[in-house]
Amino acid sequence: MKIQWLVLILVELLVLILVILRNHAPLSAPSGGFNLIQDFNDQHVTDMANFAVSEFNKQTGATLKFEKVIKGESQVVAGRNYHLIISTSNSLHSIYNIVVYDRPWDHFRNLTSFIPVIDDDYVFYYTLNQPSLID
Ligand SMILES: *[C@@H]1O[C@H](CO)[C@@H](O)[C@H](O)[C@H]1NC(C)=O
Questions:
Q1: pLDDT by residue for the chain (135 residues), tens digit each?
Q2: Atom 10 in ligand 1: which residue has the minimum CA distance?
Q3: Which candidate in 18, 66, 101, 134 could, as Cys together with 53 as Cys, close a disulfide (CB 3.0–4.6 Å)?
Q4: Residue 132, ligand 1, Cβ within 6 A
């Protein structure tokens, strides 16, 4: 009887410890995880979008103008991948699904992917492994 009580108390203590640990887990996602971007007007996020548009224009001769970020998430890698859905003007397609790789410490940035979203299909999908328009 006494041992059963002891086991019960130990189990409850363990649950309590697990709950405390879980509530104190760091909020930032581990490497490889995705964080939804909450603030579409964030300077760094719009920098990424503007970089993608000007890079795309440079590489293709297009004259897209960046309008706004519609949706986005970032992924911590060795640096950070920004997956954004943006709207542009001045072209047949206005919505694009883009990926920009950003490595702030040595100011390295690369447009990985720039793919029109057909029929305003806002479904968010990862484009890293899909063929890129700029290749
Ligand atoms: C930039 O991204 C493109 C597309 O993924 C890739 O082919 C190219 O090698 C990258 N450039 C650099 C310098 O990493």
A1: 677 777 777 778 776 766 666 655 544 445 678 889 999 999 999 999 999 999 999 999 999 999 999 999 999 988 999 999 999 988 777 889 999 999 999 999 999 999 988 755 444 443 433 433 433
A2: 110
A3: 66
A4: yes
CATH of domain 34-120: 3.10.450.10
110 lines ligand 1 (CB under 6 A): yes
In this structure, which residue's CA is closest to atom 5 in ligand 1? 112
pTM over 0.70: no
The residue to which tokens 């890293």 are assigned: 128
112 Cβ closer than 6 Å to some ligand 1 atom: yes
